[in-house]
Amino acid sequence: MSAPDTQPLLAIRGLHAAYGNIEALKGVDLDVAAGEIVALIGANGAGKSTLMMTVFGKPRASDGEIIYDGLDITHAPTHHIAHLRIAQSPEGRRIFARMSVAENLRMGADVAHGSKSERSEDLDRVLTLFPRLKERMHQRGGTLSGGEQQMLAIGRALMSRPRLLMLDEPSLGLAPLIARQIFDAIRILNQKDGLTVLIVEQNANHALKLAHRGYVMVNGLITLSGTGAELLERPEIRAAYLEGGRH
Ligand SMILES: Nc1ncnc2c1ncn2[C@@H]1O[C@H](COP(=O)(O)OP(=O)(O)OP(=O)(O)O)[C@@H](O)[C@H]1O
Ligand SMILES: [Mg+2]
Question: How many Å from the N-terminal Cα to the C-terminal Cα in the chain?
């Protein structure tokens, strides 16, 4: 039997990152354990997207450490990081608009270098999760609805066989019913496949219900953390992110 694995899958320590002289991250500490869903919430401009992008090396960390699976990846080039089975669905989806759904999914699979049978297994899994995509395999990405594009962005990330999936605002701009489908899919991936997820959301209510733990970021710093349930109960969270906010 191997020793219990107490080391987080992703450990971020004292992370700083800047755009020119704008300091977007000012010493962030955040852990994601294997098998967890962790939500990162915070107002516009807090630095949430920057945190995710810094894991991929763009922008580069100016100080602090990013440790993934025990490996210091703080200064690793972006193309190396994609091969470490970390996948990202960035804010604004960024699918390939001129490519078909099938081609978009293939782009994700190319990162994984899986065998033919692994690819077809992964494709089945994505199309079972998002049957909508199955009906639209030959349609251009750019002509999909917002919800379908989000499904495609997540599907493409899944095709790279990630251990850690980072999602930046997957529910942004989606009707509540479609947003719920996306959150349900994330829950299924976590529960069935043990996928580890770091999710950035302004929809704090949904995100904290979905997540095992959450962090609140204000102005480049983590100001609060706890279980999803604990954070949902906190009056300052309710006031800032739930009551009267985007639900
Ligand atoms: N490419 C860039 N160049 C200069 N400043 C940037 C750039 N990207 C982000 N910033 C600044 O860094 C800060 C953090 O931005 P970031 O996009 O990480 O916030 P966020 O929490 O994801 O916000 P939102 O909820 O609006 O997506 C903001 O002040 C933003 O203006
Ligand atoms: Mg953002």
Answer: 45
